[in-house]
Amino acid sequence: MSEYLRLNKEKLQKDLERFCKEAIKLGAETAVPISTNKVVVRNWVRLKCRFGCGAYGKILTCPPYSPTPDEMRKVLKEYEVALLVKFGPSVEAGYDDGVNIHEAIFKLERIVFLSGYYAAFGLACGPCPLCPECNVKEGICVKPRMARPSMEACGIDVFATARNAGFELKVLTSYSQKPTCFGLVLIT
């Protein structure tokens, strides 16, 4: 157990409740605290990026530029608590009037950081929409302060992780169905 958790459990609990409320203010449907040992990382997840997503290799927050599953497993071992954030239709899923999950997760990460959790780090959903065209040819992100990789780009099995947090997800069988999207903020 981290020193922070051992010394400040009561503060952490109050902060987690506040962070959940902040997530909703930022456009989330809901948010729940989750132990990082319930975040599932699987190697096959990045195959879905590589073979099936048009953003593969075209966006600096996506594979092959994003952290690998092995790197993400190591990172998760350094955390104990995260916030899993559920969103409805999003910009990332092609809904122009939807929530921009990358911006919302960045803002939530910032709130968590400014609350004293200096290791806070957000993971968004889908390809980064912050720029009209990614600067991938130059290899330097023009918005590194805000850009974050998606959960799936790092090998996180979003379905299994969401189920571990009590959410019930189903595979969409039609493009007319609206997707449920998730972000994750690693806290401490």
Features:
30% helix; alpha+beta; single chain; 188 residues; four-stranded antiparallel beta sheet
What's the arrangement of secondary structure elements?
Blueprint (H helix, E strand, L loop, with lengths): L2 H5 L1 H17 L4 E6 L9 H6 L18 H8 L4 E7 L13 H14 L6 E3 L34 H7 L16 E6 L2
Antiparallel strand pairs: 1-2, 2-4, 3-4
Helix pairs in contact: 2-5
Number of individual domains: 1
- The structure class reads alpha+beta
Report the uncertain regions: none
- Strand percentage: 5-15%
Strand count, sense and barrel status of the largest sheet are: 4 strands, antiparallel
Strand order of the largest sheet: 1-2-4-3
Percent of residues in helical segments? Answer: 25-40%
What is the general shape? globular
* C-alpha end-to-end distance: 10 Å
Order of helices and strands: HHEHHEHEHE
How confident overall, as mean pLDDT? Answer: 92
Radius of gyration: 16 Å
**Strand tally:** 4
* Number of alpha- plus pi-helical segments: 6
